[in-house]
Amino acid sequence: MTTLESPLQQEWAAWHREREEQLSTPHGWLSLTALHWLDGTARAYDGIPGTWRATGDGAVELTAAGDAAIDGTPVTGTVRLEPVDGQPGVLVEIGDRRVEVIRRTDAYALRVRDPEAITRTAFRGAPAFPVDERWVVDGSFEPYPEPKQLTVGAVVDGLQHFPTAVGVVRFELGGAEHELVAFPGKTGGLSLHFRDATSGDSTYGGGRQVALPDPDADGRVRIDFNRTVNLPCAFTAHATCPLPPAENRLAVAVEAGERTPPRPDLQA
């Protein structure tokens, strides 16, 4: 017997394939193999050419002898790299690998991206709950008079993030009214970063995220929880993801979107 997929399922399947392709790119989130925090002392790190140090004035210094490159140009001597807080870092090329120099508040680190990472080579897809119409809900967005900078924790002990919240989204789910603090989406729209009753059970304990389109002129917005995704820290130990705001915890079990992924890097 042939089972016909609904338009919702077909659209989700195409979106999910694209999501998995993006995850598994050669230097994507699944390629991380190390995270080294820097201080003011120039040091060498296992498997990485050169020496590295945080300067204390907004930069990282790399001293190398031509065995590292930036934009295809070998580094011979000392160069100054200036990553932006909270943004993707400066990439240094080491053969097929990339060393990403990142800044998180006033801390600096090296993140190694290796296409041969087991988290990438063993990747067989991002497990997800079955798609269901009941997880597509309408909500309303109420913007703050002015954006608010929040302070939230991170999956790295002692690290903090300072995301900017732009308002709240209210919606009904599981027979109850809910409210979540909303952040700007990376490419427009809004983003909801939350925990729910599945967190730490069938889904990653550090929370998940769902992207929303721009609200209409009356503040109405549609939330498709089927498209809820894990943050990078669900797939690797070498991410620095923020945790959701304390108020963004739903009492309902959102059995939609991505589930806890396999972690081949943690297996004996």
From TrEMBL:
Superkingdom to which the source organism belongs: Bacteria
Pfam families cross-referenced by the UniProt entry: DUF1684
InterPro entries to which the protein is assigned, alphabetical: DUF1684 (IPR012467)
Name the record gives this protein: DUF1684 domain-containing protein
Protein source organism: Pseudonocardia hierapolitana
Species lineage: Bacteria, Bacillati, Actinomycetota, Actinomycetes, Pseudonocardiales
